[in-house]
């Protein structure tokens, strides 16, 4: 189980780097991003993405909102789809696979979004969900490469 969690953060860092996103924020209960398995799984992305470690994610989110950054949280219990994200300045909160985004974080988000699914699967792996959402957000830019 621990390796899977470590693999998720490594995959997320690679995805973020592939889209030229320059920084991510991780909470104190995120897997250790400097664990050798994580570093190896990032294939060098860890050296190109600034990792901000937040001791108090709620406080960090409130600070981001003061700077007019829209905060989205993933939530299975919403009707709003990821396609509705339009803001230039935005943050996406991805929860862990076991529990999703915490109630406290959901309450502090501006909007809740989900990945629509037509199959019977209820949810996706955190790294896969992150990749789908980010690539959809950058779809227009990616068309021009």
What does this structure look like?
The chain has 145 residues and is α/β, with parallel strands linked by helices. The protein is built from six helices and five strands. The chain has helices at 2-18, 36-41, 57-66, 103-108, 126-137, 139-143, and strands spanning 23-27, 50-54, 70-74, 90-93, 111-113. The strands form two sheets. Strands 4-3-5 form a three-stranded parallel β-sheet. A two-stranded parallel sheet has the order 1-2. Helix 1 (2-18) runs parallel beside helix 5. The protein is globular.
The whole-angstrom Rg is: 15 Å
The level of helicity is 25-40%
Low-confidence segments, given as residue ranges, are none
Q: In total, how many beta strands?
A: 5
Give the helix/strand class: alpha/beta
Give the ordered list of helices and strands: HEHEHEEHEHH
Query: End-to-end span in angstroms?
Result: 37 Å
Overall residue-averaged pLDDT value: 91
- Tell me the overall shape: globular
Instruction: List the total number of helices.
Output: 6
Largest sheet: 3 strands, parallel
User: What order do the strands of the largest sheet run in, or round the barrel if closed?
Assistant: 4-3-5
Strand content: 15-25%
Summarize the structure.
The protein has helices at residues 2-18, 36-41, 57-66, 103-108, 126-137, 139-143, and strands spanning 23-27, 50-54, 70-74, 90-93, 111-113.
